[in-house]
Specification:
It contains 24 helices and 10 strands. The chain is mainly α.
């Protein structure tokens, strides 16, 4: 199935395995620290191989460590040792940046630049925490706790590697204690990512769907015309009118520039008639390009829809491969599967959904994208040839590329610029792509009634605590609290009425706030009996209550109305005559003359088929 270069295999952490990973061996021999002098200044660099990437090596400048000369080589060695734990260039670069603006900046600003490894004590670690808690001069407020935790985390990791180093461990004080979490429960203080509002979500998905359908229909129609016109392409065109037919023009471009990226200067020089036809008849080369390869702007709605449909992080989706998606049969039913690598979690995001013929089904989108980018696969670097999202930008060097950045695909300029452009063109707010995943989980929460296990499965989280802590929205938490409060109120009323008002066993669509089964209540907290702010306990009084109502199209409601009439009549056998006339007679009269006659024959016949237990006798 899906594979990745240098990603964990079943042998990765098995010390007893006899399998030799040749690529891993090359990495170990290629990783190195370079020291020297350049332009009269000393330099210190970590050089790390990046197999499978366009650049063979990643060079991280660690020269800033010379600002703390007695620690420079120790920290460089610890950093170099740590790089063996990750292969993502953005992660390595980010760690170096956090070391520079974190621990090294702390040592310089607090007059500790000359300390030695022997001075890395618990006191210095705690002083670093104190420095991180101070207000920043540029903002007059401390850093966010998450930012402090990241800077301190870099320090903690490097101290761990120094302690494990045969070269430096003896120089690190054995008493050094580095706190695991100086800012506990910080995730509860952070501003949560907001869920996209329902009306905005409808507009967003509608805009994506319309664009995707329009693009697919236009491009596929062009492909059909091109395939039909291949034999009609003139060998010696006399004028641009020889390419007046769109299919002939596309077939001519395909023949002339097979294996190349279409560029205006090439086309104009090689075949002026073809260039003139594209500009004068077919709307310009910009429209013609799209039949051969996508632009980053055209890919945006495809990415958004796939992100919502699969629940895969947008950054991971942008870096996904063709073979991360496939269709297979399971128990005679076709299903669409995906298995996309999430670098931060070092795990696969997997899932599957049923196949259908809808044009915007994710399987159809992936199949279309696979064919649409086929022309570019031979033109990009081999490390990118299997990526799902390839494109040629409309400006600049016009070279085949992918959404790729050393800081992660989601911050790639081509993606960020065209994503915002898409939102602006449709008059939408600038949603953070992180909101897609949270909004999807919010929908799962609503559909499943707050089932955390279902949410965990959809999000591909290893631990349910991750889902509960980071992905349950404020709205979902409020619904859970309201549901708990509702259960408590219903239970309290059941006890007050000694079991007469029982909601267990009622159909899901019925109103459990109403005191009488089968009825609905406009405001169950303002009933005829009972204290304020508690559920009404006026059992059997709903027919005469101004807040009571009944669904005249429901067979269940009709059957319960007849059950109530029977219970009211039975009450005459146990109640004092005067009490029955005062309390139950009005209920019987309203049932017989107002409510029951309004049910249609169809509803009555359906109600007769229901088997419901008798209702308790009112008191």
């Amino acid at each position: 199935m899906a594979t990745r270069v240098l990603r964990p295999t079943r042998f990765s952490h098995d010390s007893k395995s006899v399998v030799v990973d040749i690529d891993q061996g090359r990495i170990e021999t290629g990783r190195r620290i370079e020291k020297g002098t350049e332009h009269g200044k000393p330099f210190l660099r970590a050089v790390l191989p990046t197999p499978g990437e366009p650049e063979l090596e990643q060079v991280i400048d660690l020269s800033f460590l010379y600002a703390v000369p007695n620690l420079a080589h120790a920290l460089a060695d610890a950093f170099w040792d740590w790089t063996a734990t990750t292969q993502r260039t953005s992660t390595r670069g980010g760690e170096a940046q956090r070391l520079r603006v974190g621990f090294v900046a702390f040592l310089i600003e607090t007059g500790r630049a000359e300390i030695t490894p022997e001075c890395l004590t618990t006191e210095s670690a705690n002083a670093f925490i104190g420095w991180l808690n101070e207000k920043r001069s540029s903002r007059n407020e401390p850093l966010q706790e998450n930012s402090r935790a990241k800077l301190f985390g870099t320090f903690r990791r490097l101290m761990k590697h120094l302690r494990q180093s045969s070269k430096w461990s003896k120089r690190i004080p054995a008493s050094l204690h580095v706190k695991d979490s100086p800012w506990p429960m910080r995730h509860l203080k952070a501003k949560p990512t907001e869920v996209i509002a329902a009306d905005e979500l409808r507009v967003l998905l509608s805009a994506c769907t319309k664009e995707v359908i329009t693009t697919m229909q236009r491009i596929e129609a062009g492909w059909r015309l091109r395939d039909e016109a291949r034999k009609a392409v003139p060998d010696h065109p006399k004028s641009y009118k020889d390419y007046a037919d769109l299919g002939v023009c596309l077939a001519g471009l395909e023949r002339q520039f097979a294996g190349k990226v279409l560029r205006q200067d090439f086309i104009e020089a090689a075949n002026p008639s073809l260039w003139q036809a594209a500009g004068k008849i077919h709307g310009g080369l910009g429209k013609m390009y799209a039949y051969f390869f996508p632009t980053p702007r055209l890919l945006v709605p495809f990415v958004i829809l796939l992100s919502f449909y699969t629940g895969v992080n947008t950054g991971s989706l942008l870096e996904s491969h063709r073979n991360d998606f496939w269709v297979a049969s399971m128990l005679g039913q076709r299903r669409f599967y995906w298995r996309v690598w999430k670098e931060r979690a070092k795990s696969w995001q997997t899932g599957n959904i049923a196949w259908d013929e809808d044009m915007t089904h994710p399987a159809k989108l992936v199949q279309f994208l696979d064919r649409w980018t086929e022309h570019l696969r031979a033109l990009v670097h081999p490390s990118l040839s299997q990526w799902l999202f390839l494109f040629v930008a409309t400006r600049g060097r016009r070279e085949p590329a992918s959404f790729h950045s050393k800081w992660g695909a989601s911050v790639d300029f081509a993606w960020a610029y065209n994503y915002i452009l898409f939102l602006d063109q449709h008059g939408l707010n600038h949603f953070d792509t992180r909101q897609f995943r949270l909004t999807g989980l919010e929908i799962v929460h609503q559909i499943t009634g707050g089932d955390l296990r279902a949410m965990q499965a959809w999000a591909n989280h290893k631990r349910v605590g991750t889902t509960e802590r980071n992905y349950v929205s404020d709205g979902a938490k409020q619904r859970d609290e309201e549901r708990l409060a509702e259960i408590m109120q219903v239970r309290g009323r059941w006890r007050r009425t000694r079991g007469k008002i029982e909601t267990r066993g009622r159909p899901e669509h019925t109103d459990i706030g109403a005191a009488t089964p089968g009825w609905t209540c406009l405001d169950p907290y303002s009933g005829l009996y009972g204290p304020e702010d508690t559920l009404c306990s006026a059992y059997a009084q709903c027919p005469v209550c101004p807040l009571g109502s009944i669904d005249l199209q429901s067979p269940y409601a009709c059957a319960q109305a007849h059950n109530l009439l029977e219970a009211v009549r039975r009450a005459a056998e146990t109640m004092a005559p005067q009490a029955w006339l005062m309390r139950m007679a009005p209920v019987q009269e309203r049932l017989l003359n107002t409510w029951l006659p309004q049910f249609s024959d169809r509803v009555r016949k359906a109600a007769e088929k229901l088997s419901l237990p008798s209702l308790p006798v009112p008191e």
